[in-house]
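Supplementary Text 2. Reproducibility record for the structural model of the 188-residue chain.

All settings were left at their defaults, and a single model was retained for analysis rather than an ensemble. We include the record here because the model underlies the residue-level annotations in Supplementary Table 4.
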Amino acid sequence: MNEHDSSKSPSRLETIERGVGARSAGLKKELGLFDLVLIQVVFVVGTVWVGQAAKLGHSQMIYWLIAIILFYLPLAAVVIFLNRQMPLEGGIYQWAKLAFNDFVAFLVAWNLWVFGILVMSGIALIIKKNIAYAIGPRANWMHENKLVTIVVCVVLMCAVVAASRRGLALGKWVQNFGGGLLLLPLRL
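Retained model, structure tokens:
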């Protein structure tokens, strides 16, 4: 038998999995199913479109059912499959790296980073509008004030950095609190 028999030598995937596993061994698994469900509530339900959905009433249910069937269930199936095949810390970045190459993984990470910036800027504007709405008509000046926008963005970014430095042990509770608050008025 040839000493270079492929059945005896570890595959590229096994070698990479061992390397990532060794680096990840000290990390605690912070997120459970409940946490992931509430994260999806925050991402999907949000506060931006709820008023429009309320205007549509029950007729919006067909769109939700279509979205569940055509998007959420296939997405869940793919994530479950990939997580079972490659249970690596780093999720989609590691999966792209293993399936394609470092450049594709970089593009995935870059895309997520840009998405994060866009989401954070949108959230900052929503927070500013919500503060102005809560104060009432005397706060109408806040809508056009760029300094208020900058201050809200800086405070939000500092809060996110502080929570990130603390880790998922804190971040998951912040996210869960937000998900719970979103569910409260919807009575889901």
